[in-house]
Amino acid sequence: HGTLMKGKKGLVMGVANDRSIAWGIASAVAAQGGELAFTYQGEALGKRVQPLAESVGSSLVLPCDVTDDAAIDAAFAAIEKEWGELDFVVHAIGWADKQFLRGRYLDTPREAFLKALDISCYSFTAVAQRASKLMKNGGSLLTLSYLGAERVMPHYNVMGIAKAALEASVRYMATDLGRDGIRVNAISAGPIKTLAANGIGDFRYILKWNQYNSPLERNVALEEVGGAGLYMVSDLSSGVTGEVHHVDCGYHVVGMKNPTAPDI
Ligand code: NAD
């Protein structure tokens, strides 16, 4: 066990199970002595998050559906009551109706668009509003994005638009909060088999494609995103804000299919 995060208190939002990116980051932070609180969406997931939180010594486990302002207020009120302050937040939350994570983006109806953008983009802003008030000694806000924000990925559709907006919000909030010593960053992760990823059409093909065509010729591991998350919420990244950091085995630099890759 290291001590990089000793004395730091942070909230992790978006653990659904032990394959969640939020959990990968939480484990890495806990292993460095960070103190953690967790929020979960709905009682069913709460039952899964509780034992995971306990395994890293956390007893602050709170419900929070991010579509509900009152629920976000209640979660931050509970954190303020318990801790009085906050050093970092990991926001690893995204959602779109999977009916629209296939076919053409063009066919996305208004309701599906608004809900995807609300949960996957606005919620980070709503969280930053509350969290920044508790970051009296500066802090770090971290969210998760995907290359589909920058390039067209088959099936990613409305999530690509939501992630593009999320990445822009990282830059605007980094500027808003910089004078308070609060940093705002995103990690753009390569594909990882999680619950959320199951909703994306042909996800197995996407995993294979990235494995064969990324410079490291493999997929990124949850622990590697965890390590990058640890860096972003720790003082090691104290000079970094407004950044979208790719943790994808280098796939984002590649312009064409690897000529030596096998057919999928
Ligand atoms: P996951 O299913 O483990 O986590 C997604 C989380 O979002 C769940 O815990 C879910 O409860 C939460 N969530 C959804 N709607 C919510 C709501 N209304 N209120 C509160 N929480 C809500 O999957 P994951 O892959 O770990 O996803 C975490 C983040 O990482 C997402 O933003 C996702 O887009 C992003 N991401 C994932 C990948 C990948 O390949 N898995 C790649 C890049 C980025």
Describe the structure.
The chain is an alpha/beta fold. It has one domain: Rossmann fold, CATH 3.40.50. It is 41% helix and 14% strand. The chain is built from seven helices and seven strands. It has a seven-stranded parallel β-sheet with strand order 3-2-1-4-5-6-7, sandwiched between helices. The N and C termini lie far apart (41 Å). Nicotinamide-adenine-dinucleotide (NAD) binds next to helix 1 and strand 5.
Put the structure in a nutshell.
The protein is α/β, with parallel strands linked by helices and 264 residues long. It has helices spanning 21-30, 42-55, 69-83, 110-134, 157-177, 203-213, 222-233; strands at residues 9-13, 35-40, 60-63, 88-91, 139-145, 182-189, 244-247.
Strand portion, in percent? 5-15%
Bound molecules: nicotinamide-adenine-dinucleotide
Our Rg estimate from Cα atoms comes to 18 Å
**Spatial strand order of the main sheet:** 3-2-1-4-5-6-7
What is the 3D form? globular
Main pleated-sheet profile = 7 strands, parallel
Rounded mean pLDDT is: 97
Percent of residues in helices comes to: 40-55%
Whole-number count of domains: 1
**How many alpha or pi helices?**
7
CATH architecture descriptor name: 3-Layer(aba) Sandwich
**The first-level CATH class name:** Alpha Beta
Keywords:
264 residues, alpha/beta, Rossmann fold, 7 helices, 7 strands, 41% helix, 14% strand, binds nicotinamide-adenine-dinucleotide, EC 1.3.1.9, lipid biosynthesis, Enoyl-ACP_Rdtase_NADH, lipid metabolism, NAD(P)-bd_dom_sf
